[in-house]
Amino acid sequence: MSGQTLYDKLWNAHVVHVEDDGTTLLYIDRHLVHEVTSPQAFEGLRMAGRQPWRLSANLAVADHNVPTTNRSEGIADPVSHLQVETLDKNCDYFGITEFKMNDVRQGIVHVIGPEQGATLPGMTVVCGDSHTSTHGAFAALAHGIGTSEVEHVLATQCLLQKKSKAMLIKVEGDLGAGVTAKDIVLAIIGKIGTAGGNGYAIEFGGSAIRSLSIEGRMTVCNMAIEAGARAGMVAADEKTIDYVKGRPFAPQGADWDLAVAYWKTLTSDADAKFDCVVELDAAQIKPQVTWGTSPEMVTTVDGRVPDPACEADAVKRSGIERALSYMGLQANTPITEIAIDKVFIGSCTNSRIEDLRAAAAVAKGKRVAPNVKLAMVVPGSGLVKLQAEQEGLDKVFIEAGFEWREPGCSMCLAMNADKLEPGERCASTSNRNFEGRQGPGGRTHLVSPAMAAAAAIAGHFVDVRTVAQSPLKAA
Amino acid sequence: MEKFTQLCGLVAPLDRANVDTDAIIPKQFLKSIKRTGFGPNAFDEWRYLDHGEPGMDNSQRPLNPDFVLNQSRYRGAQILLARENFGCGSSREHAPWALEDYGFRAIIAPSFADIFFNNCFKNGLLPIVLDAEIVAQLFRDAEAAEGYKLTVDLDAQTVTTPSDQSFAFNVDAFRKYCLLNGLDDIGLTLRHVEKIKAYEARRKVEAPWMFAQ
Ligand code: SF4
What we know:
Oligomer: heterodimer
Radius of gyration of chain B: 20 Å
Largest interface: A-B, 81 and 60 residues
Low-confidence stretches of chain A: none
Bound molecules: iron/sulfur cluster
Number of helices of chain B: 8
Number of strands of chain A: 19
Mean pLDDT of chain B: 94
Helix content of chain A: 25-40%
Order of helices and strands of chain B: EHHEHEHEHEEEHHH
Distance between the termini of chain B: 35 Å
Helix content of chain B: 25-40%
Strand order of the largest sheet of chain A: 5-4-3-6-7
Strand content of chain A: 15-25%
Largest sheet of chain A: 5 strands, parallel
Low-confidence stretches of chain B: none
Distance between the termini of chain A: 52 Å
Structural class of chain A: alpha/beta
Structural class of chain B: alpha/beta
Radius of gyration of chain A: 21 Å
Shape of chain A: globular
Largest sheet of chain B: 7 strands, mixed
């Protein structure tokens, strides 16, 4: 018998019951809750007269709707206000731990889980949000669920699941300077497509993944869903354990030793069999920029906007034509000649401290280009913001002409007041460039934080590898 | 949940790949704390010429004549024909709620995004995967013949055309059982209360650190 994949190990450790057709009742260790996908679940729970199965498994935060300015004045939009208030009330009523809007620990749900140590290796982690795959960076089995499933997890602490197939994406070799985790994952999606991971749980491995920091691994796993996979994961190693140590929800004392001993087993066995293996050479990966309305519509910064005439497949050709018309782009335009109107540095993909440092290193001592109407930095959590301010990054950004905001999802999906106007073009560190994602008619180009900062300074996309960077003073 | 057994319904073809859940129901409508009423805003940005916000009177808004679902021949369609990777993107269950509220009971596509696929079953909406070539044929037929209907039989797991061509599809036995009987997952799971408790008892010994706050 061949060995087990990391996915097999995580799965097997959580099986409660299996139906004849393989449908499995899987135990859920951590349930993260936010305001958008939970109100109907809480309502269902109430109507059925049910209580949450295990309160301590839940952690809630409002992130999608919260304003990034003037927090003290509350939420101006009455509909957003009601949704956040509904979460507060539901958490108070049922007794669920919640970081309220003005708590310094508030932030994007996928940033605060790991930050608090609420996400631990070996756990099953779910949330009514597709980017829950982020937490797989800790050798956890983590994926997004719908609202019916949110209710199901609240009521039973379990989820009905069919096991996925296992895919290994191996990125071997050394990354070039200026090439980041974001570029790796965009290159992966460019290669396998947005449906490439459908039906799979992806493990990211290889020396380039191991060499990433935990935050970089979170960026990669975050976008597993954009490659079509519900779950992405990375094996545990010393970096994983070091990252978790000492965080508020992390185990302590004897529990810590027991946990660490287990976490060290959270890797795929050398003889484990995957249903599919994809390999990439890290040295070949360049900074990436998306040009279309799907994350797979991506190229390198030294590339050009594609020409639909060169696409043989009719469905794909019309997809490219529609994307170019929506994006207001001409075929064959060099990427570096695309001018931008706005810059957004933030989202659960790229709003952690290392992301802000990378962007600040590019922005330091420079000015945002005059054609850029707004360049904003939205830290992933109140604690990330605090840390950045202690390091002086806020000043670097403000002096360069960026706006420094309060934490939340912000212009990643534009459910709050931060949005693009129709036709505006944005360099964004978020994860989706769908039509209207950042505001109706808005045009999104996905890039890394350093690339976004470089574009803000130049006023158009520019190869960050050619841009001088300033060392940041350590705090 | 409404039962799903057999359906003979008008087919509407939506000829785009990678239709994402942001397109199915744009984010401004996710601020609702209810489960119903999303139908008039399904495909809002494609369907109307103006920008939609919650609380608008949708019957007064200008329709986009180029959007396929606005053609009168597809009014009342219950089966949506779609391309690859339908339902990708955000996990919002508002997407199947909107499609169901619009009147769809089944979606046929060569492939679906996983979370969306799962969410459909929880809402009495049947996602059917057929080969890309068969789907391409159905697109041609549905566009060619006005009033084109298909018959979906969940028990037999078949899709049948007006000319009696029948295509088999797969569906997990457990999901099929729940859909045929309109069963609620939570009720079913709670039959296993003892097993869940036994699992927790064992894990508290093996991995007590999982259960700390
Ligand atoms: S930052 Fe964007 S992708 Fe992440 S949870 Fe918020 S809205 Fe979703």
